Amino acid sequence: xxxxxxxxxxxxxxxxxxxxxxxxxxxxxxxxxxxxxxxxxxxxxxxxxxxxxxxxxxxxxxxxxxxxxxxxxxxxxxxxxxxxxxxxxxxxxxxxxxxxxxxxxxxxxxxxxxxxxxxxxxxxxxxxxxxxxxxxxxxxxxxxxxxxxxxxxxxxxxxxxxxxxxxxxxxxxxxxxxxxxxxxxxxxxxxxxxxxxxxxxxxxxxxxxxxxxxxxxxxxxxxxxxxxxxxxxxxxxxxxxxxxxxxxxxxxxxxxxxxxxxxxxxxxxxxxxxxxxxxxxxxxxx
Length: 286
What we know:
11 helices, Tetrahydropterin Synthase, Chain A, 286 residues, three-stranded antiparallel β-sheet, Helicase, Ruva Protein, domain 3, elongated, alpha+beta
């Protein structure tokens, strides 16, 4: 077996981020060839991914980027198996790299788009493989989205302190000038969405299949009542469902004397303009 120098081990460790013993072992198995040793370490990660393919990835971190002008933002989730790994230096470093890959991804959504994005000659799928070889756990990108304001408005963004919940919301405004009050309210609405998990902006934005399912449930609940009042009761239950699940009609978490829609309207009016929620997205790990 070729003698493995400490310098070679250190070089491979710097290139791969792997532990000293893993690097020394890989170099030993490849006769000291650093490129071959790197390939071997990557194969180790691929083998681990294959072995743990069926494992649940219910831990991880929500990754968020937002521009200084609040006109563009990306959000993704990097998931793993255990909280221990989610808090490890290797996983956190990969999460930070994911931010850069999100910024450089040409697509507005799609996990595969992120995995195929390349930086410095390396696809993010390869970064994942390297991380798996270090942590020994299945690691994957769970979600990815990019928001760009098309026209006038601002994006609000929020990630919960546990790093497992996050939201983006796009606020459309009546002019180019977005007041600090509207921008702050956008962040608070993103926090509200993270906490309350609404089904849509308003009733028109909720999937008709969800509404129909709610109607079926409501009809089942009043089965046996006189036919002439069933429709009224069901309509009342659906109206309540909209109030509870449409973000503009929900009591605002920062001031429950107002709805979210009223809070945003008040902030816009104070600045002499108008604003409305255009869209939102919420990611949750676990």
